[in-house]
Amino acid sequence: MASAKRVKLHYALCESALPENMGADHFGEFYIAKAEQSVWFVAKNGTVVSLCDFLLNAEPVAPPRHGRDGKDAEPAPKGERGPAGIGRDGRDGEDSKIPGPPGRDGFSIVGPAGRDGRDAPSIDELLAASRHDMARLRAEYAEIKLMLQGFCDINKKAGDYITWLKERAARRAAVAEGK
Questions:
Q1: Do 46 and 23 meet the contact criterion of CB atoms below 8 Å apart?
Q2: Among the listed ranges 55-69, 72-86, 118-132, which one has the minimum average pLDDT value?
Q3: What is the pTM of this model?
C-alpha cells in the first residue's frame, strides 16, 4: 500500500503576494490566492504555476508582479542660493509695561464636600452576575467550537479535491507523453 503524502495548503491574500520561485524542497505545495480565487502549485523545479491555467490548457505562468525595485539615482548637484527676502531685518522688542491681572491661588481654594456615593452591590448580586456571564461565555465557546469543526471539515474536503486535481494532472501528463 502506498504511503499518503501530506499536502501543504497555503493561503495568500492575492496573486501578487505569491512567491515566483520556492525551490525544489517545496514541490507539491499548493497556494490559494483568496482575492482572485485561483490555485497555484509548486512544480518540481520550484516554479510556482497557476493550476487554473494548466487545467484550461493555457500556458501556465508565474504569479504577476507589479514592477521591480529600481536603482537609486545619483544625488543632484547643489543649486544656487536664492534671492534675499523682501523687507528689512527687525530688532527684538522689549517687555510690556502694562501689568496683567493677578493669577489665582489654587492652593487656598476649598470647595464644598461632594455627595455621598451609592452603595456597592451585594455579594448575591455579584455572584448572580458572574454566573450569568459564565453561562454566556460557555454558550459562546460552544458556538466557536462548532465553527472551528466546520472549518476543519472544509479543509479536509479541500485536501481531497486537490488530490483529485493532482491525479487528473498526472493522467493528462501521461497522455501528453504518450502522443
A1: yes
A2: 55-69
A3: 0.33
